[in-house]
Specification:
six-stranded mixed sheet; 14 helices; about 45% helix
Amino acid sequence: MAGGLILTSAFPPAGAWPLAPLGPALLVVALQGRSLRASFAVGLLFGLALFVPLLSWLINLAWYAWAALAIAEAVIFALLAVGQRMLLSLRAWPVAVAGWWVAAEALRDRWPYAFPWGRLAMSQAGAPTVPWTAIGGAPLLSFLLALTGSTLAWLLLAPGSAVGLRRRLVPALAFAGATGLALAGGLLPVDPVPAGTPAATVAAIQGDVPHATNLPDLLRATTVTANHAAATQKLAEQVRAGKRPAPDLVIWPENSTDLDPRQYPPVFGTITAAVQAIDRPVLVGEVLRNPLRNVGQLWTPAHGPGPLYVKRQLVPFGEYIPFRGLLSHVTSLVALQPENFTAGRRAVVFHVGPIRLGDVICYEVGFDGLVSSEVRAGANLLAVQTNDATFEVDGQLGESLQQLAMARIRAVESDRAVVVASTTGVSAVIAPDGTLVAHTGTWRQAILESRVPLLHTITLADRVGAGPEYLITALTVGAFGWAAYGWAVARRRRRSATRA
């Protein structure tokens, strides 16, 4: 439980990134010498201590959503912890345990429904370790952090007697080496912004959302759109007055209109007036119907709505209901989302002058392949459109800050500036080295405007894609197979000895 709570503290809102390796270290100590059944219990306690507080912002949606997701993630973690216990029988178990973390995260990112929260790497925004993501992506950084933790556990478990001092030297050196290797990321030259690099001025609009939760849906939706239009018109007035430079591009957040502008002429008119006032292209977060889609659509003063990006990674139990047919026999809650959203199928790059904008929407920032696919498609700038209003009630900032940390890591991973536009905050402009150029508070209307570089370099991480994750996972599965074979042989020997 201590390990799970310490690991949670490494993530925002606490954000104590140096604590990240201590979680894996204490899990090894707790698993050492346990039976497989007891290892499941240890993993369950660790998982609950990690996911219950980490996902506490879900209580603003529904307490049962928080409980169901945290418990489900903890049970999956517990099942996987049995595998880690088996790996501890290998001679090179510190390396195998580090691989286990990468393999476990890869599985949880994909099954039984995609949910990437709680990855070790995502605790490191702003840390000197984070440049490793430009080399091998988030999986490589998770591996190095877990290796630091597993070698620390090796040192803690070494004999403490005078005779054992010599036996502690090797794990001590291994721990020092793993720690130094992780921190050496700060020495990597992964953020070259050459002189003469093209740049563009980009604005992010945070229109804010009504605090009252009992407003009729139609009134609430039109108010949100009107707020973003008003903030954009305010920016246009400041540009005309010479108080701000004219932006090359304006970005509105996810759900800046929940009403399909094609079906609601007043919404269409509100957006059109704002676009014409600023006289620049505006990326608008919309919900379109027939079919139901979550999109970012580029509006221009001359042509109105144009090309659009359709969200590819949908939120389970939010934008679609997994196992809908099965769950409908168990609970009526599936009726809360009566129609599944339709997912997009491809990366889209918006062309705005020299800007090649790649867009990811909210939840998608947690998925390695989605972000890198936008860069490989030619994006020289990234946008994250998000709506955090549901999860920020009563000052809960966990979801927004955790998502912002992911966006900062994506900036380093792909060597791109990232613009985060949120309905209620935190909105931000992030430099390619992950630093916050500008950011807002929450539950207020705000305008962010910054000059950002337009880089075209492709990092090694984006070139190799999921290769490091696949390789580490495959080697870990092989190590697990060897460990399982050893357990089976030992068990047969014990049975034979008992019969004799």
